[in-house]
Design goal:
By secondary structure, the chain is an alpha+beta fold. The chain is built from 6 helices and 13 strands. Helix 2 runs antiparallel to helix 5 (176-201) and helix 3 packs antiparallel against helix 4 (143-172). The radius of gyration is 44 Å and the shape is rod-shaped.
């Protein structure tokens, strides 16, 4: 009997503790108290290219601002790649300009002179052929001489045709396909140069947001890569209290509902906040809730965003959230909010 009485007392104590954990006093139906921990977003910062770390400018615990330089890699090979592509681009642009400009006037005049010279050579060959033909008819010259002169005449005609075509090409300029290919070559090198310049820029690591360096994972001399974080950055904003609420209480809170947040570290301060997120799905109570009876209950995760201008709410800090369920939603989240004393 005595053992039964002891077990009954223990069970009653556990139930009372669980009730106090989740429920506010029924006499105060317009208020709700929740318990949770401060949470914030963390960023794993890594270089976007791979090389040896030359220097790192910040350490654990330092505050950084958005855009601040945090470190850089050895950029020698990236600078060389940029210079090489800049030279190749200039060469390709000059070649394209030459093709687009077409033939120079001097080249056209030379082609015209070649045509005139070939025409004169053809006339001379025709005259020689006629004289030789007359001599062969009169049997003064052998037939072989006429054959030789005829060959020279054919060569003169072919040469005249060739220089005429050369003059036509000089006047028309390069083919459209050749110019298009040169333009494509310029565009290709420009794209390669853009990527090389981006790689060179990525040898420097900048803070993407205001925050605090939580950990410095690598050191100068290490080989950095996109898969190896260098720093862990804890963002200063937003800050929220991660808490859980059972399903029977879910209807008492709405997004935007104002809240007051208290901590053991600053017991005299009430930080203003608001309900920012209510999970759409249920989950079992987290394991850090010690009461076995409560760990088997389905709850909904709730985020209470907090105003934290003094950076006093730190990651993992236990916090108490008091909600006035009679207040209208939308009163929280105003910029420039300050902790209430």
């Amino acid at each position: 009997m005595f053992r039964f009485f002891i077990l009954l007392v223990i069970a009653g104590s556990a139930a009372a503790a669980g009730y106090r954990f989740w429920h506010q006093d029924d006499t105060d139906s317009q208020s709700l108290t929740l318990y949770g921990n401060v949470d914030l977003r963390e960023i794993q910062l890594a270089f976007m290219v791979q090389d040896r770390i030359a220097e790192l400018d910040v350490r654990e615990g330092e505050r950084v601002t958005r855009g601040q330089l945090l470190g850089r890699l050895d950029s020698t090979r990236f600078e060389s790649a940029v210079r090489e592509l800049e030279a190749r681009l200039e060469q390709a642009r000059q070649k394209l300009a030459e093709l687009e400009s077409g033939s120079r006037p001097q080249e056209i005049r030379k082609a015209e002179a070649d045509v005139a010279a070939a025409r004169a050579s053809l006339l001379d060959a025709q005259q020689r052929y006629r004289r030789t033909e007359k001599l062969v008819r009169e049997k003064v010259a052998p037939q072989q001489t006429l054959d030789d002169v005829r060959s020279q005449l054919d060569v003169a005609r072919a040469r005249l045709e060739a220089v005429r075509e050369a003059l036509s090409l000089a006047k028309e300029g390069p083919r459209k396909e050749t110019i298009a290919a040169a333009r494509a070559s310029v565009a290709q090198i420009e794209a390669l140069l853009t990527r090389a310049r981006k790689d060179l820029h990525d040898t420097r690591l900048f803070a993407p947001a205001d925050g605090t360096i939580r950990s410095r994972i690598l050191e100068p001399g290490d080989i950095a890569s996109p898969l190896r974080p260098v720093f862990t950055l804890a963002k200063l904003e937003p800050v929220w209290i991660r808490t859980y609420i059972p399903e029977p209480m879910l209807g008492r809170i709405t997004p935007g509902m104002p809240a007051r947040i208290l901590t053991d570290s600053f017991p005299d301060k009430h930080y203003p906040g608001w309900v920012g997120y209510i999970s759409p799905s249920a989950e079992f109570t987290p394991r850090n809730v010690e009461t076995p009876a409560l760990r088997t209950r389905l709850v909904y995760q709730v985020w209470i965003y907090a105003c934290n201008p003094g950076n006093e709410l730190r990651l993992g800090m236990p916090a108490t959230v008091m909600l006035d369920t009679s207040a209208h939603a939308g009163d929280g989240g105003l910029p420039g909010c300050q902790p209430a004393q």
